[in-house]
């Protein structure tokens, strides 16, 4: 057991609890973030199940009428964060951003539900179920408008992997001439060499401006946004979440939903083959505006197992990549292929290891019968926390902590998964 680290992880989650919702970390991310909250709930569940459910319930207070669950819910103004609610210009209450984030909620709730006294939480699951349906339907409608069975995004922030090399090519098409002068806040909180470059930031804001100017109309955003890239991460995570939502529908006797969710799953199982890049032996992103493949292998390719699609020969090729990554980046899984020219071991999503991604990859490996590899990822994750603490991310070459400290989702992944005995805690 790791009593000190367990206690520190709980203390971090408690410090970052601002009353019914948990911020990722003080300073850098002072609001409620979507997938951060969901992963935090897994950690909170190890010591306070009621509070874990509340984390998801408060996130849904920000849900839009069209079903979208925003990536940030701005509960109180904090001038130390940019871009705040006025930049997003969404006329909603509570104020929120205008894009979503990887939908891990259904998968997290299933884990909570399975580790709960079910009768005590059944009503709460019943209340959340239609909201999650509405959100997933929004993804299938507005992020897959041509029914390709893959999920696209209109903003790198929506993928959660802000500065991944996958976006460079498509971002080049974004007009930045109309953006107003602005001051970044993130680089005042953490070492700028661990954050996205200035040109990327301009383009992130160019995309916000574009969507704000068409009033975040979801139909127009999907049809007109200059950036529309089918993302391996979103596609795999939603496919997995749809499987968990289907399971929930059956548990709850929501018969009407079963057919709809089953349709989404079959479409995605077909669609994901569009992302298979046989030259590289990996799933890679696709620029849906230009029709071009994006030839970068990132850690999201290993989410195929989590989505239940990385089997057979494809799975073997993915395992070969994983082994190759480890020879260059022993504390992996690195977020970008260490042999990629854009690899930068400490810069956010260009190399660093993220415990939540490690967790999802390892879960998938376990489920597909690759326990040894999954366990290796878990041991790497444990080692990173022991050496560096609860950082936002970690250098896969040296193991040093990167980005923000006292980070909620890293603390949560420790408690729910990486600590000895962690797996039992929510299972
Ligand atoms: C940021 O501000 O860097 C966030 O990643 C946006 O979600």
Highlighted features:
three-stranded antiparallel β-sheet; single chain; binds (2R)-2,3-dihydroxypropanoic acid; 427 residues; 4% strand; mainly alpha
Structure description:
With 427 residues, this protein is mainly alpha-helical. Helix content is 50%, strand content 4%. The protein contains 19 helices and nine strands. The chain has helices spanning 3-15, 34-44, 49-59, 85-88, 105-114, 118-142, 156-159, 168-171, 186-189, 198-213, 218-224, 232-252, 255-271, 304-307, 312-328, 355-367, 371-388, 408-418, 422-426, and strands at 32-33, 72-73, 152-153, 229-230, 276-277, 282-283, 286-287, 393-394, 401-402. It has a three-stranded antiparallel beta sheet. Strand 5 (276-277) and strand 6 form a beta hairpin. Helix 6 packs across helix 12. The radius of gyration is 20 Å and the shape is globular. The mean pLDDT is 95. Bound molecules: (2R)-2,3-dihydroxypropanoic acid. (2R)-2,3-dihydroxypropanoic acid is lined by residues 71, 157, 162, 186. (2R)-2,3-dihydroxypropanoic acid binds next to loops.
Give a quick account of the main beta sheet: strands, pairing sense, barrel closure.
Answer: 3 strands, antiparallel
- What is the ordering of alpha helices and beta strands? HEHHEHHHEHHHHHEHHEEEHHHHEEHH
What class, by secondary structure content?
mainly alpha
The residue fraction in helices comes out at 40-55%
Strand content: under 5%
- How many helices? The count is 19
Distinct ligands? (2R)-2,3-dihydroxypropanoic acid
Unreliable sequence segments: none
Rg from C-alpha positions? 20 Å
**Count of beta strands:** 9
Biggest β-sheet: strands ordered side by side in the sheet = 3-4-7
Nearest-integer average pLDDT? 95
Distance between the termini: 18 Å
Name the overall outline: globular
């Amino acid at each position: 057991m790791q009593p000190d680290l367990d206690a520190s992880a709980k203390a971090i989650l408690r410090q970052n609890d601002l009353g019914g919702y948990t911020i990722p970390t003080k300073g850098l991310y002072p609001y409620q973030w979507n997938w951060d909250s969901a992963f935090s709930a897994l950690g909170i569940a190890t010591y306070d199940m009621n509070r874990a459910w509340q984390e998801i319930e408060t996130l849904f207070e920000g849900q839009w009428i069209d079903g979208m669950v925003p990536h940030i819910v701005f509960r109180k103004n904090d001038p130390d964060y940019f871009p705040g609610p006025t930049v997003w210009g969404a006329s909603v209450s509570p104020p929120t951003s205008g894009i979503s984030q990887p939908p891990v909620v259904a998968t997290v709730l299933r884990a909570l539900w399975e580790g709960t006294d079910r009768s005590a939480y059944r009503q709460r699951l019943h209340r959340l179920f239609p909201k999650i349906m509405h959100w997933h339907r929004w993804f299938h409608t507005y992020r897959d408008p041509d029914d390709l069975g893959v999920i696209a995004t209109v903003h790198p922030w929506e993928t959660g992997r802000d500065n991944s090399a996958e976006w460079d090519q498509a971002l080049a098409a974004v007009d930045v001439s109309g953006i107003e002068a602005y001051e970044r806040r993130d680089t005042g909180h953490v070492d700028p060499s661990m954050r996205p470059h200035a040109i990327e930031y301009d383009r992130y804001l160019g995309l916000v401006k574009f969507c704000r100017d068409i009033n975040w109309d979801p139909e127009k955003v999907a049809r007109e946004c200059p950036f529309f890239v089918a993302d391996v991460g979103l596609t795999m995570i939603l496919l997995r979440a749809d499987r968990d939502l289907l399971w929930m529908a059956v548990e709850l006797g929501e018969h009407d939903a079963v057919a709809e969710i089953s349709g989404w799953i079959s479409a995605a199982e077909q669609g994901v083959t569009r992302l298979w890049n046989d030259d590289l032996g990996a799933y890679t992103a696709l620029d849906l505006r230009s029709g071009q493949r994006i030839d970068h292998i990132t850690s999201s390719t290993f989410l195929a197992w989590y989505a239940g699609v990385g089997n057979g020969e494809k799975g073997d090729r993915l395992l070969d990549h994983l082994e190759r990554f480890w020879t260059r980046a022993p504390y992996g899984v690195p977020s970008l292929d260490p042999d990629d020219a854009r690899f930068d071991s400490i810069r956010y999503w260009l190399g660093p290891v993220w415990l939540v991604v490690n967790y999802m990859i390892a879960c998938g490996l376990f489920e597909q019968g690759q326990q040894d590899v999954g366990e290796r990822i878990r041991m790497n994750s444990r080692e990173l926390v022991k050496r560096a603490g609860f950082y936002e991310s970690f250098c896969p070459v040296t193991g040093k902590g990167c980005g923000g400290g006292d980070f909620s989702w890293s603390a949560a992944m420790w408690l729910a998964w990486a600590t000895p005995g962690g797996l039992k805690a929510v299972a």
